[in-house]
Amino acid sequence: MKALITGASSGIGADIAVELSNLGYDLILVARRKTRLEELKRKLKTKVEIIPMDLGSTFNCMKLYEQVKEESIDILVNNAGFGLAGEFVETSLDKELDMIDLNVKAVHTLTKCFLKDFRERNKGYILNVASSASFQPGPLMSTYYGTKSYVYFLTMAIYEELRRENSSVYVGCLCPGPVDTEFNKVAKVSFALPSLSSEFVAHYAVKKMFKRKLVIIPGTKMKLVCFFSHLAPRKLKLKITYKIQHRKIR
Hints:
Elements: E1 2-6, H1 11-22, E2 26-31, H2 34-43, E3 48-52, H3 58-68, E4 75-78, H4 93-121, E5 125-129, H5 142-164, E6 170-174, E7 179-180, H6 183-187, E8 196-197, H7 198-210, E9 215-216, H8 220-231, H9 234-248
């Protein structure tokens, strides 16, 4: 049994690696920071291959797939991504385009490549890490919310295609709320709601993935927030989200 995890050097990705290793899965861990991957490898119980790589390049995504496609991957976890906060007219275009490359294009590319193999074998798991931000527009984090909405809706569409052909391949979407990870420092935000630990989120995500849950939302409070957000009028949601984001920006 083997799993490939992107964005595995810290946070949710690293803790999903721990969970799957404890379950007996050999691992292929991908991230930019080789030193962090080596540190994680020493903590894991199973066989681990590390691949230091920037997946913000579509060329690198294809290179990664070609490198590992013969290794009979059972699980793909698309976790790599980052955020950016601020007024849309003021945030860096270069950083936003990099975000789209990593949060959207890398997920799209790897999902498509591995799904073709999984579909032929009629087995396999794909877990795409999105966010509770997937469910609505996000003033002051507009590009990040947009990228995570893409991941969410892409995953939903693929699920229905697989369901209609009675495929045994699983595809699901992890949509956590605030999580205590390095994401907060990179995006330069702090959260109003208490953050869940990445260990809890990873454990919950893996458990629900194997139960074939389509949308995985860790934490009771965040489940309630997501439920009631669907009921609110669109413009009211925009106003509320803006105020929440404004309080978060450091």
